[in-house]
Specification:
The chain is an alpha/beta fold. Helix content is 39%, strand content 14%. It contains 13 helices and seven strands. The chain has a seven-stranded mixed beta sheet with strand order 3-2-1-4-5-7-6, sandwiched between helices. α2 links the parallel β1 and β2. α7 runs antiparallel to α8, α7 packs across α10 and α11 packs parallel to α12. It is globular, with a radius of gyration of 20 Å. The protein starts with 20 loop residues before the first helix and ends with a strand. The structure holds S-adenosylmethionine. S-adenosylmethionine binds next to α2 and β2.
Length: 321
């Protein structure tokens, strides 16, 4: 039974607004019912909107952040057995589906990146706006913190990381400042330590522009959480788990991520990704999907004004053939 799904849907959950909500639900065609996997359930905004489209819809919600998962479970308890939550990395999708005894699914959603809960929880160490230990792990039960990573890597490795994941042209100067601080016996341990090291290296910047440490924080967060690792493989695996006419929707928040999403979807649509000089295709492109978004869908002016964090969002989707 189809249910009404109005406008932008549930606007906020303690300040959190799901990005591109209406567009994502339309792209997933969630009103058809069946199993949907929300690979990044976060606070459950998109999951709730999916569940509201039809009483025949079920959602398997995955998140690597146990705290977010707990909040989503509470929020979505009213949907009973139609919502199930699993603590895992979405790159473990095959195992998660097998354990949950869910076969081919009608839709898969990945709303990549960090949640507002993570950014706004001072103790998580994601933001230079709050003084905290430099942690940045989405899954606090495992892995190395950002401070540990900066304590272990060489100056060149730090510079390469900040350049590659933050697209920061002043990465060498910043890496030097971080390592100098370590050599003086005061390794960068907190968000303030890192923001100050960046400011020492590149200045305080122009107040009207982004904070000078923005790119460095982004780079570290991507590295700590391995955000780009196997993203392409995850997309291929998500498509493998879709039934025919199943839909995939991916929302990304920075160009590095979006590039991987775009290229992987093109390859899955059968478009060869090999360099033009190669005489023969070796990338293995085979037509498995039809791309539904020739250009990425981006938030309209109103959404950007109401939710500045949505500004960099890009939604891409595909239909399995
Ligand atoms: C942008 S938020 C999702 C917000 C969600 N769509 C909502 O409406 O509340 C991204 C979430 O994905 C989770 N996440 C990021 N990478 C993940 C991964 N590889 N595996 C599982 N969860 C991941 C983060 O912990 C975060 O909670």
């Amino acid at each position: 039974m189809a249910m009404a799904f109005g406008g932008q849907g549930p606007k906020s959950h303690k300040g959190h607004r799901p990005v591109l909500l209406r567009e994502t639900i339309e792209l997933l065609a969630a009103e058809r019912g069946g199993w949907f996997v929300d690979c990044t359930v976060g606070l459950g905004g998109h999951s709730e909107a999916i569940l509201q489209t039809s009483s025949d819809t079920q959602v398997l919600g995955i998140d690597r952040d146990e705290k977010a998962l707990g909040l989503a479970r509470r929020r979505l308890a009213l949907y009973g057995s139609r919502f199930r939550a699993v603590h895992a990395d979405f790159r473990e999708l095959t195992r998660v589906l097998a354990t949950a005894k869910v076969g081919q699914v009608r839709g898969v959603l990945a709303d990549l990146g960090v949640s507002s809960l993570q950014l706004d929880s001072p103790e998580r160490g994601f933001s230079f706006r709050h003084e905290a230990l430099l942690d940045m792990r989405m899954d606090m039960s495992r892995g190395e913190t950002a401070a540990e990573l900066l304590g272990r890597l060489s100056e060149v490795e730090i510079a390469n990381l900040i350049f590659a994941y933050g697209e920061e042209p002043r990465s060498r100067r910043i890496a030097r400042a971080i390592v100098q601080q370590r050599e003086r016996g005061h390794p960068v341990a907190t968000t303030t330590d890192l923001a100050q090291a960046v400011e020492r290296a590149v200045g305080k910047g122009n107040k009207r522009r982004i904070h000078p440490a923005t790119r460095t924080f982004q780079a570290l967060r991507i590295a700590v959480n391995g955000e780009l690792e196997n993203l392409d493989r995850f997309i291929v695996s998500a498509v493998d788990h879709l039934e025919q006419a199943g839909r995939l929707a991916v929302i990304s928040f920075h160009s590095l991520e979006d590039r991987i999403v775009k290229r992987t979807l093109q390859k899955l649509a059968g478009r060869c990704q090999c360099p033009p000089r190669l005489p023969k295709c070796i990338c293995g492109a085979a037509k498995k999907v039809e791309i539904l978004t020739r250009r990425a869908i981006v938030p309209g002016r109103q959404e950007q004004a109401e939710n500045p964090r949505s500004r960099s969002a890009k939604l891409r989707g595909a239909n399995k053939i």
